[in-house]
Amino acid sequence: MKEVSSEKIAALRDMILDKAGEDKRKIIGQAYKETEEWLAKENGKLEQEKNNVIQDARRRADDIRRRQIIAAERDKAADMLRLQNRILTEALGRFQDKLVHLRERDDYIDILTGICAEAVFSLKEARTLKLRLSAVNMKLADDITAGLKKLAPEADVIFDPEPAQILGGCWISTADGRRQVNSDWQSITQEIADALAERLLPLL
Asked: pLDDT (tens digit, 9 = 90+) per residue, 171-192?
């Protein structure tokens, strides 16, 4: 009887994890897609700005000495770098806003529980773990810890009432604090920063 019960729990856990993982991928994928569409629109404006800078540099190149041309090219490179940084910062901000607004969804607790479960599983060798949430999500602590007991019954997850300085998501750490997995919105946003930068560079 116990064996059947364990199998049902395992099956339920797998179903919940699969759904949470699928929802997370869909949400992040949609946010990433919207960010890419926004970048594509900005590309047209950026291309025009780039052309204007190049044309202006070529006109001045006929009238100034070689060292002034080099200075102009250096200035142009700095302008392009500033444009890249500005657009990248705005794109990451938009992506993070999408994550923050997840709290408006009816299945937000399931999404948050699934994200926390992934962090717990990444520290599966530790028996006792601490969970920290953002101040705005503190009221969801009981529901999340209850969900984690179903998803990861082998782990003893203790809620830490000290709010984490994050916008959403969670921090999971070992009891001794030596290891910590940050699954908060800022960390997730930072994870895609390199990918967005790689897409942006060819546009400049």
From this structure: 999 988 899 999 999 998 988 8
List, for residues 103-140, the tens digit of each pLDDT value. 999 999 999 999 999 999 999 888 899 999 999 999 99
Q: DSSP class of residue 168?
A: S
**Nearest to residue 127, comparing CAs of 168, 81, 176?**
176
Residue 168 and residue 198 share a domain:
no
Q: Please give the model's pTM, rounded to 2 decimal places.
A: 0.59
The amino acid sitting at 110 is D
Looking at the structure, tell me whether residues 120 and 90 fall in a common domain.
no
CA distances from 68 to 21, 51, 95, 168 (A): 56, 19, 41, 50
| Mode of pairing for the β-strands spanning 128-133 and 156-159 | parallel
How many angstroms separate the CA atoms of 31 and 35, rounded? 6
DSSP conformation class of 160: -
Same-domain check for residues 70 and 114 = no
What is the total count of domains within the chain?
2
Distance CA 9, CA 131 (A): 22
Do both 170 and 133 map to the same domain?
yes
Query: Could you list the residue range(s) of the whole structural domain that residue 84 is in?
Result: 2-102+192-203
| Residues 19-54 as b or e (16 or more Cβ within 10 Å = b) | ebeebbeebbeebbeebeeebeebbeebeeebeebe
